[in-house]
């Protein structure tokens, strides 16, 4: 076997194609399994997070209904405040507040509360307030049916599944109703609680849709909320029956994920079509197999063509090597064969000595240049190496079931990517909030979840509006370090709203606050042109906003001692 063509073809088939097929097949299988497990796990985590938020929302409305017991006013006698029977029946008040005023306050305390009505137990009189001031058709209001269902547990709040509030004139909104009895706790306690009246809150089911953005659903995927009796509170596919839900949950083509909602003794169920969820994965896997097949055929054809063409250039190279035969190098290579490569080696030995001169003069300089380019490339690779290393550590933590550590590493990696990217000064409001949530997650774990971050965004705000990059995190960091750090618990709130042609972002906390002298000194620092010795974060954000958007924009600080601090940031709205 003296022909290099035969040697090349045989080695190509054995060493090239067989490992290629084996490695490609096992790599695709391992990658597909990993992606499926990761996608399913990630989806389960999102459903768990959504269920937690829903349960918190229910608890929030439950707390609103408890305001009938918690409200206290200065200058009101103790008898009037505690004797709810006298307040409701004689004074038409809840505590010291007129019932209509109390209901109006309840309605406008949350964007999704569409109506509130109070049914007095003594005579069945209905007091009501509706967000759009529509009239109440009391004969259509199923008050007695709801009160009968509450009779077994009169001291506990009750929730009634979604229905249309057609008892308000001209309204066909889908709502669910939360009810709580007002019990007179004054006087001697009896076996049966003394119910003075019942408060009903209609809550728009659109409240549930704000949580759907956490899941990336296909057109046929469904997320629904049911209670222990399979009453449906919400479904993104519209009205569904119990039989349809049961049949869907047994469909093997569906990935069914469930999480408990303790407040309604129910479940959040996500039914995801496997074909839609892994459609891109199946398509990518088929594409990889086709690409492997095409590459294999191309390699065989090109290998045969190249091996045939290899002999002619080698013969020409041997003829040209006679030109440089006048130089020699110290190292001589042995000739082990009589084929084309062997003859090429003989010619190479004759020009080695002359090539050494070229290596000393030209190649050394070229190697140095390549080393410089390599060092520059390494400096670009380091951030990506750091991201990849953090991701390996995070996946190792996930594998060890250290979910909290994995989430912290994931949040830190996101922050590094966000901060190290120097290519942009402005980002969308959505990206800035995502970075803020990653930062605050690490803060929450660090301080044992003592602090809570709440974000309230009005519907007219576009999440794609650009704002200054890294403008919210320094403010929230100040709130934690200087406002909440000395407290056992605390809340940081963010309100985002559109005011005429400006975007207003308010960051407030219920921490230690500042006295008037400290607040005045901080506001003076924001107006001074010289760099400050303190409040560097506030000054930095303020100057960056003014530099980019003009003197009319920036931030302002207000605070009260032992109450909290509020920082207002203003940006122009970009349409």
Tell me what you see in this structure.
The chain has 575 residues and is an alpha+beta fold. The protein is built from 16 helices and 18 strands. The strands form five sheets. Strands 4-3-7-6-5 form a five-stranded antiparallel sheet, with helices on both faces. Strands 13-15-16-18-17 form a five-stranded mixed sheet. It comes from Paenibacillus medicaginis. It holds the Pfam family HATPase_c.
In short:
The chain is of the alpha+beta class.
Task: Please describe the structure with a list of short key phrases separated by commas or semicolons.
575 residues; alpha+beta; five-stranded antiparallel sheet; five-stranded mixed sheet; 18 strands
Which spans have pLDDT < 50 for at least 5 consecutive residues? 72-81, 373-382
Give the tally of β-strands. Answer: 18
Helix content: 40-55%
How do the strands of the widest beta sheet line up side by side?
4-3-7-6-5
Task: Report the radius of gyration as a whole number of Å.
Answer: 36 Å
Shape descriptor: elongated
Structural class: alpha+beta
Largest sheet: 5 strands, antiparallel
Put simply, the count of helices is 16
Question: What number is the mean pLDDT?
Answer: 76
Q: Indicate the proportion of strand residues.
A: 15-25%
Distance between the termini: 75 Å
List the helices and strands and how they pair.
Blueprint: H1 4-65, H2 67-70, H3 78-82, H4 84-89, E1 93-94, E2 97-98, H5 99-107, E3 113-120, E4 126-130, H6 143-150, E5 158-164, E6 174-183, E7 195-204, H7 206-209, E8 222-226, E9 232-235, H8 242-249, E10 254-261, E11 266-273, H9 274-277, H10 279-320, H11 340-399, H12 403-420, E12 426-428, H13 429-446, E13 451-457, E14 466-468, H14 473-484, E15 490-499, E16 502-509, H15 516-527, H16 536-549, E17 554-560, E18 564-572
Parallel strand pairs: 13-15
Antiparallel strand pairs: 1-2, 3-4, 3-7, 5-6, 6-7, 8-9, 8-11, 10-11, 12-14, 15-16, 16-18, 17-18
Helix pairs in contact: 1-10, 10-11, 11-12, 12-13
């Amino acid at each position: 076997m003296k022909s290099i063509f035969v040697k090349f073809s045989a080695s190509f088939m054995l060493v090239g194609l067989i490992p290629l097929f084996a490695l490609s097949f096992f790599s695709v299988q391992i990658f597909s399994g990993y992606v499926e497990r990761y996608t399913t796990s990630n989806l389960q985590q999102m459903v768990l997070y959504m269920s937690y938020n829903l349960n918190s929302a229910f608890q929030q409305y439950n707390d609103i209904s408890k305001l009938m017991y918690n409200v206290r006013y200065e200058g009101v006698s103790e008898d009037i405040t505690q004797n709810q029977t006298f307040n409701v029946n004689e004074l038409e008040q809840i505590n010291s507040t007129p019932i209509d005023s109390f209901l109006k306050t309840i309605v406008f305390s949350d964007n999704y509360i569409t109506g509130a009505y109070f049914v007095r137990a003594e005579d069945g009189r209905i007091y009501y307030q509706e967000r759009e001031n529509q009239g109440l058709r009391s004969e259509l209001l199923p008050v007695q049916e709801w009160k009968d269902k509450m009779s077994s547990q009169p001291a506990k709040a009750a929730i009634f599944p979604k229905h249309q509030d057609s008892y308000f004139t001209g309204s066909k909104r889908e709502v669910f109703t939360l009810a709580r009895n007002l019990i007179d706790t004054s006087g001697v306690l009896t076996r049966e609680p003394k119910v003075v009246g019942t408060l009903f809150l209609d809550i728009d089911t659109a409240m549930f849709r704000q949580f759907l953005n956490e899941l990336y659903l296909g057109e046929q995927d469904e997320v629904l909320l049911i209670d222990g009796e399979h009453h449906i509170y919400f479904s993104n596919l519209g009205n569904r029956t119990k039989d349809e839900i049961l049949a869907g949950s047994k469909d093997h083509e569906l990935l069914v994920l469930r999480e408990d909602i303790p407040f309604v003794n129910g479940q959040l169920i996500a039914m995801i079509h496997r074909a839609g969820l892994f459609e891109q994965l199946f398509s990518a896997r088929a594409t990889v197999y086709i690409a492997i097949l095409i590459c294999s055929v191309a390699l065989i054809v090109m290998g045969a063509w190249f091996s045939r063409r290899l002999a002619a250039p080698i013969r020409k190279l041997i003829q040209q090597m006679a030109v440089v035969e006048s130089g020699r190098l110290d190292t001589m290579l042995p000739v082990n064969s009589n084929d084309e490569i062997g003859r090429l080696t003989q010619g190479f030995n004759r020009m080695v000595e002359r090539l050494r001169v070229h290596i000393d003069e030209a190649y050394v300089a070229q190697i140095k240049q390549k080393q410089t380019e390599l060092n520059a490339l390494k400096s670009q690779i380091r951030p990506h190496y750091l991201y990849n290393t953090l991701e390996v550590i995070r996946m190792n933590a996930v594998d060890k079931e250290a979910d909290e550590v994995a989430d912290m590493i994931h949040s830190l990696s996101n922050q590094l990517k966000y901060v190290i990217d120097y290519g942009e000064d402005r980002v969308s409001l959505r990206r800035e909030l995502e970075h803020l949530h990653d930062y605050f997650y690490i803060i929450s774990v660090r301080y044992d979840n003592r602090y809570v971050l709440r974000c309230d965004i009005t519907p007219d705000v576009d999440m794609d509006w650009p704002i200054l990059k890294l403008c919210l995190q320094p403010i929230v960091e100040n709130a934690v370090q200087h406002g909440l750090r000395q407290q056992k618990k605390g809340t940081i709130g963010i309100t985002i709203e559109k005011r005429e042609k400006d975007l207003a972002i308010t960051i407030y906390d219920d921490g230690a606050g500042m006295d008037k002298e400290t607040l005045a000194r901080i506001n003076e620092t924001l107006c001074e042109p010289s760099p400050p010795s303190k409040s560097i974060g506030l000054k930095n954000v303020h100057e960056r906003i003014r530099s980019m958007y003009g003197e009319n924009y920036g931030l302002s600080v207000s605070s009260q001692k032992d109450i909290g601090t509020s920082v207002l940031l203003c940006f122009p709205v970009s349409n």
